[in-house]
């Protein structure tokens, strides 16, 4: 059985796949569609990207509000997801104006930077509605849960923060250090950053060690395309 964590990277998508024993696989693809064969046979695939989008509602997604509430200093990493209409716009101004028209909120540059990846995953799931094993995750929420519901003390951008997270992961899967070493050796930083490896890895470890997965909120909202709006941990 495969448990997969996926994070967006400059090349496209970086993934870590773990099995029930001690095996693992890492890789990169330039489009989420190319992960379909792997995702189709996985027990759970956790992707660090908003899944399930508001359309014209003014309220933020409950999952974003809930995650932000528990993360303390790390809460700023959970930014409001754009509405679906904004994701399918072709330029920042158009997307921001569309988001404001439909939700009452302008679109941040941070949100705009990942809209192409949000659109990729949204289209992928709408095309493959049978994939009920694909879930949204947020790395800091996963670390919070794996760390006995305590936030990480340092930013992952700092060496001590990176090492703190590796230590947390290694308590659940002893080969995390080897996976990170292999990934950083195999891929150039201009294609896959250290953070990308860490974030995909926490998704895979969470999927493997947290069955059944918990959702935030406990009873997810459903968007107009029938997709759950929930962050798992």
Q: Would you write up a description of this structure?
A:
By secondary structure, this protein is α/β, with parallel strands linked by helices. The chain is 41% helix and 18% strand. It has helices spanning 36-40, 62-70, 84-87, 92-103, 109-113, 115-127, 139-146, 159-170, 176-186, 194-209; strands at residues 2-8, 13-18, 24-29, 42-47, 134-137, 215-222, 228-232. The chain has a seven-stranded mixed beta sheet with strand order 3-2-1-4-5-7-6, sandwiched between helices. β2 and β3 (24-29) form a beta hairpin. 42% of the residues are buried.
Give a nutshell description of this structure:
With 233 residues, this protein is an alpha/beta fold. It has helices at residues 36-40, 62-70, 84-87, 92-103, 109-113, 115-127, 139-146, 159-170, 176-186, 194-209; strands spanning 2-8, 13-18, 24-29, 42-47, 134-137, 215-222, 228-232.
Strand order of the largest sheet: 3-2-1-4-5-7-6
> Judging from the principal axes of the Cα atoms, what is the shape?
globular
Percent strand: 15-25%
Largest sheet, strands/sense/barrel:
7 strands, mixed
Low-pLDDT runs: none
Number of strands: 7
Q: What kind of oligomer do you see?
A: single chain
- Head-to-tail CA distance between termini: 19 Å
List the helices and strands and how they pair.
Elements lengths: L1 E7 L4 E6 L5 E6 L6 H5 L1 E6 L14 H9 L13 H4 L4 H12 L5 H5 L1 H13 L6 E4 L1 H8 L12 H12 L5 H11 L7 H16 L5 E8 L5 E5 L1
Parallel strand pairs: 1-4, 4-5, 5-7
Antiparallel strand pairs: 1-2, 2-3, 6-7
